[in-house]
Write a structure and sequence with these properties.
Largest sheet: 3 strands, antiparallel
Helix content: under 10%
Order of helices and strands: EEEEEE
Number of strands: 6
Strand order of the largest sheet: 1-2-3
Oligomer: single chain
Structural class: mainly beta
Distance between the termini: 60 Å
Number of helices: 0
């Protein structure tokens, strides 16, 4: 009989995501195994993309300090889904699904 896989369920902004967990021997704990949100996008009900915080920052990223933002997790538009996960939501209007350029 196959052992059932562990998952962590997140419910936020009109969507539900089941993130598989895997056991990491080095840290002696279960870690989340995130899907590739770039290849398989996930959007909130309001059209904001769900992203992994370690993705390279996009051209719209902004940072509190001078210089270039290195990853999504350090961007001012990034909002974590939960304090215990490395995925969040990009709140930049131009990254929204069905964004319509004004003017």
């Amino acid at each position: 009989m196959e052992k059932s896989k562990k998952i962590r369920r997140y419910e936020f902004e009109g969507i539900t995501l089941d993130i598989p967990l895997y056991y990491d021997e080095l840290s002696d704990m279960y870690l989340e195994e995130y899907p590739d949100f770039t290849e398989h996008p996930v959007w909130t009900k309001d059209g904001h993309p769900v992203i992994f915080c370690g993705e390279d920052a996009c051209p719209y990223s902004e940072w509190e300090e001078p210089g270039r933002c290195m990853d999504c997790g350090s961007c001012l538009y990034y909002t974590p889904v939960s304090p215990h996960t490395l995925m969040g939501i990009c709140r930049h209007e131009k990254q929204r699904r069905n964004y319509i350029k004004k003017g």
